Amino acid sequence: TKPSTFLVPGEKTSAGTLAIISLSRDNFLPLTLEKSTGAVDGYLEGATLNTRFGSYPHSTLLDVPWGSQVRASNVDTGSRGKKRRRDATDEDTPIASQDDDEDSTAANAPVKKAVTAPSGFIYVLRPTPELWTTSLPHRTQVVYTPDYSYILHRIRARPGTRIIEAGAGSGSFTHASVRAVYNGYPRDAADTKGKVFSFEFNESRYHKMQAEIGEHGLDGLVQLTHRDVYNDGFLVDGKSPKATAVFLDVPAPWEAVHHLSRRKMKKGGEEAEEDSNWVSPLDPKQSVHICTFSPCIEQVDRTVTELRTLGWVDVDMVEISNQKINISRERVGVNFPSEKGYNSSPADVAEAVTKLKSLAERNKDTQRVQGLQSGTEGLDSEMDVDSTPSRDNRPSNGLNGTADDAERPFMQGRLVHRPESDLKTHTSYLVFAVLPCEWSEEDEAAAMAKWPCGN
Ligand code: SAM
Prior knowledge:
alpha/beta
């Protein structure tokens, strides 16, 4: 099996594999790289990525180290035989505004535009679950990185874990979980190989997801089944996945958890009639950790009741409240006293330095008059420098107005922190619980026989 670039990326890009193209800071595009001939006679041939930042024949994106910056192609992309002039047209792209991009990108789209500003660039990034989550085609709500990182940690997903997931949806959680449990490609059906057993009820989503798994080289590591798990449970071809971790992102998890038991159960905790053919989807020798993902508290209530009734323990609920905080120095953020009071911002750095020098002179005078030994108090009284108790921000002893002062970090501005509001996350309640492994007298006897001090 060819290793998935999600798991074994190698050093460089290659044809037939997925890359994540970074167009600007928050604009990512998944792209399967194809063999292409590149530029022929000044025209782009074959697969080409066309963006408002220029055109990129796949040939320029192939066999480059992951993370490379690639410049836009410097050739005309007009259709062959219809040569276009290379002068400015209304199709010109303002490359300088690359970070303000609105998505207007067509991967592998037919070549239409002339490249008139070849200074555009992109980055070719190796696919990771995090980048896939931000760039995947949405078919459903998805689980975002802050949630799945915590979930995978709590359900103890690690190399070798066999994890059950329902529903697969857009595959965001699937990609994160397969990386967490991956411990080598399975040569056989060994139970020791980490694997994701994923279930999806919606047929068209099932087919799209199945195709993606193949394209991403995850066959054999993710086994997707088209299934209504409420009615039909979690066996795969009649066999047990022997799972020790479960993640349910379905509208009614309480309809499915009775299938995740060690004996045949009915909903509501009632034991079902004996069935010698019944097989548990769980590993009989290990405790099982579950997480369910529900957007409202009524759903949580019903799930918790069902879990308790079915013998799950350590039931608790968590809501991830993730906030990204951007910390920076305001460029010339020192507030200068002025006739009008504080907050007169200098227009440019040169003006700032001049003002700082004159301010330092005034500080010296003030200190002399007040008989102060250190310049610190003078500075604090004159300038509204950052009040954050960080070493870098504190005026140091002896700061009494030299030109060097302007170069000290705190003189370059005050630290400001602003929450970034646009962090994508789908707020939900996470319910966790554990189903202990069963322990018989025989198990205890066997354990004691192995115990060095046991008798
Ligand atoms: N966790 C997914 C992700 O990160 O991309 C998103 C899951 S989406 C919110 C819920 C999915 O559960 C939908 O695709 C839906 O079709 C599927 N689903 C709903 N009921 C189901 C059932 N009874 N059995 C299996 N899948 C079901």
